[in-house]
Amino acid sequence: MTVILAAGDFDFTEEAPAKINLALHVTGRRADGYHLLDMLVTFARHGDRLGFRVSEYDELSLSGSFSPLLAEADAGGNLVLKARDLLRQAAHAAGFEAPPVHIHLEKNLPIASGIGGGSADAAATLRGLTQLWALTVPSDTVMTIALKLGADVPMCLVSRPLIARGIGETIELLPDFPSFAMVLGNPLVGVSTPEVFRLLARKDNPPLALPSQAPNDHAQWIGAIKRLRNDLEPPARMLCNEIATLSQLIESQGALTTRMSGSGATCFGLFDHLEQATAAAASLHSIRPDWYFQATETIKGET
């Protein structure tokens, strides 16, 4: 009999929340080719989930709606495995044991969809293995590992509302940032991030600027977010016609504002209440049952 595993069957579990770019401004480019970004980022309560337990040998198992697609990908390129190996090296260098581990990844987020799925998984791996191996490695060491894994991983390691600048390594937490009801949508069509950046009309756009006096209620925050933008959305729409259709569909459900996240193709709509978002996601699923829709709430800042 085949045993179906879930992350909850393991000794430690870690959530890997979807990373939502409420705004993404491309402000320049470094000499090494990396683009400079200003990002307003929040995290959804919906995401992947990982389980961890000590094992006789290293193992990675998969479940979840999008696990078949992940299983088809190159296992050697999996950020979960890279995070495990880099953290193990740091543990050994600090004199800690880091025995073989069975990691289970419950893959609930679409692959390569602009909401940080792989980065969130890597960050959750760093958090989970730090617990499992009882490590007291300095937080700066873990953050350095996170940046080696990718520019989004330090943000996902925090998984709280923030502003990120540079290539993503300069992080400012937003402790008073509210939670939003949200619908995520994805047409399940891949978009090439390098190609999106290549098609940017300009790479020195105005930086992200929030009001000098922080908004103090939901409506003011929505207004502030509306005045921001995602500079990657126009070129992504050129590559993927479905993004425009998806955005229009979400907007038609009464979203307060709609935007693409990251380099796409996921779009989000913000709503007043979770009940509205849930009804909107159900309606959208009935219109396009072949696309991905998910109602969720975002994680509020911690004061």
UniProtKB/TrEMBL annotation:
It comes from the Bacteria. The active site is at 19, 152. GO terms for biological process: isopentenyl diphosphate biosynthetic process, methylerythritol 4-phosphate pathway; terpenoid biosynthetic process. It is an enzyme of class 2 (transferase). The keyword Zinc does not apply. ATP binds at residues 110-120. Residues 221-284 form the GHMP kinase C-terminal domain. Pathway: Isoprenoid biosynthesis; isopentenyl diphosphate biosynthesis via DXP pathway; isopentenyl diphosphate from 1-deoxy-D-xylulose 5-phosphate: step 3/6. Its EC number is 2.7.1.148. Catalyzes the phosphorylation of the position 2 hydroxy group of 4-diphosphocytidyl-2C-methyl-D-erythritol. GO terms for molecular function: 4-(cytidine 5'-diphospho)-2-C-methyl-D-erythritol kinase activity; ATP binding. This is 4-diphosphocytidyl-2-C-methyl-D-erythritol kinase. SUPFAM superfamilies: GHMP Kinase, C-terminal domain, Ribosomal protein S5 domain 2-like. It catalyses: 4-CDP-2-C-methyl-D-erythritol + ATP = 4-CDP-2-C-methyl-D-erythritol 2-phosphate + ADP + H(+). Belongs to the GHMP kinase family. IspE subfamily. Residues 78-158 form the GHMP kinase N-terminal domain. InterPro entries: GHMP_kinase_C_dom, GHMP_kinase_C_sf, GHMP_kinase_N_dom, IspE, Ribosomal_Su5_D2-typ_SF, Ribsml_uS5_D2-typ_fold_subgr. Keywords: ATP-binding, Isoprene biosynthesis, Kinase, Nucleotide-binding, Transferase.
